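It would be a great kindness if you could assist me with a short task in structural biology. Thank you for your consideration; the sequence and its tokens are set out here.
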Amino acid sequence: MPTELTPKKVDGAYQLTHKIADFIRDSGKIPATVNQPVNQLINGEVDALKMMIKELQEEKEKIYGQLEKKDIQVDHLQKLIDQQQQLTLQANRQNERLQLQLELIQEKEDQPLKDEKLILR
């Protein structure tokens, strides 16, 4: 394949220029009576494309595997968030109960002082 027709891999994906796409399209239109060097060139192109397809399929499988791992991690983190929310809710309720108990105790402690003030008057 001529150098200007070799696709470039950008961000893990092969980028085909218009020239490359035209060449691939046109290569399928060559009649079967073409001389041997052109057929070899086409066979080489087909092999190169097959190799690129295989690489892309492997890369896709790798990405799907990474995506699956990320899904599992997200599920785990969501469960941890749910647990933390439950714990926070329980802690807030406990704090409210303790605050009410403290207020009741303070009211009981303050009541004798009020009674003494009434008696002293």
In short: Strands lie at 8-10, 13-15. The chain has a mean pLDDT of 82.
